Amino acid sequence: MDRLLEACVTQGASDIHLVVERPPVLRIDGRLRSLETKILGPEDTAALMKSITPERNQQELQEEGGTDFGFAFGDAGRFRVSIFRQKGNISLVLRLIPSKIMTFEEIGLPKICAALCRRPRGMFLVTGPTGSGKTTTLACMVNYINENFDRHIITVEEPIEYYHTHKKSVICQREVGVDVPSFGEALRRVLRMDPDVILVGELRDLETIEAAVRAAETGHLVFSTVHTTSAAGTITRIIDVFPVDQQEQIRIQLSSNLIAVLSQALCPLALGKGRVAAYEFMVVTPAISNLIRENKTYRIDSSIQTGKKLGMQLLDEHLWQLYDGGKITLEEMLDKGRAPGALQDKATAKLEAMRGRLGARKKEKAKAEMEDLGPILRA
């Protein structure tokens, strides 16, 4: 197992997949790469599991069929582990959590994010599919607050991924299943702990969402994640979790307490190794707050397009900028885009314009050559 973990770190992989009837597989720059080693059998994955899994989690695996935990791998970083049964065999997925927390500039976050982290209250949501870097973005924001302001920061995670040390702030990290039984229980008690900033690992159910909104209402800055792919979709998703008779109330609460939604997707670079993040960013202005309150979320995209001076942008706009700048491929842009048809048309139009300019240059060159040959031909 140590050799596998070392390979993950040295090759710059984000995940290790260990399943029966396949050799170990690394995810590098978003793509799966098999290692040139033996094919794993049921006894191999079971032995690898036991080598890193605490007794408590092995018991949970036996009872529930799956378990999650985290552990440190020297100074190289931490790994978040998901162990589960499939076809009666044990499989493992290990996600590498780097030890270094990146800055806003390194991950390309909009500059206004720093200003929003100064807010004394409200809810800031980071959204995107699994593996899109939500945890890294949240760690960056928490670290910025920790370094620059005297706050009491409390995180509730399952499991703890990035470990933060006390800097200018006091930071306490609670792990669900170890320090507290559930997200709901942690959030019920957190308001008695004199917090300024609360990070909730994920808004996954009605109880957690209610508690997080209540914390934002009572004067705290709340960060969390949702598995959605757009700002407008995030609001709709949260509201739809509630029973119909409570949806009007949650719309009013969100319109007053939501301060921003950052949706992101990770794209492999077209040239070289590494990935770049594409963002959709929405700051809740009075106009957008009014759209949330009036249940007109379908008009939020238009408000984002007109809010560029605040750093707002749609995901497809940023994907186009990355493609137009040569950072990502056309296929990657179309895969991650919300309106791939419109992006394809835009790319086609760009290609036709380039061909037109190339054709015009060829004609001008031919004309100049004929003018140079004119005296010779006349002679």
- Helical content stands at 40-55%
What spatial order of strands do you see in the largest sheet?
Answer: 9-8-10-11-7-12-13
- What structural category arises from helix and sheet content? alpha/beta
Mean pLDDT: 90
What is the H/E order? HEEEHHEEEHHEHEEHEHEHHEEHHHHH
Number of helices: 15
Distance between the termini: 83 Å
Largest sheet: 7 strands, mixed
Determine the strand fraction and express it as a percent band: 15-25%
Radius of gyration: 25 Å
Query: Which term fits the overall shape?
Result: globular
Query: What is the tally of beta strands?
Result: 13
Low-confidence stretches: none
Oligomer: single chain
What's this, in brief?
This protein is of the alpha/beta class and 379 residues long. Helix content is 45%, strand content 23%.
Keywords:
single chain, 379 residues, alpha/beta, 7-stranded mixed β-sheet, 6-stranded antiparallel β-sheet, 15 helices, 13 strands, 23% strand, globular
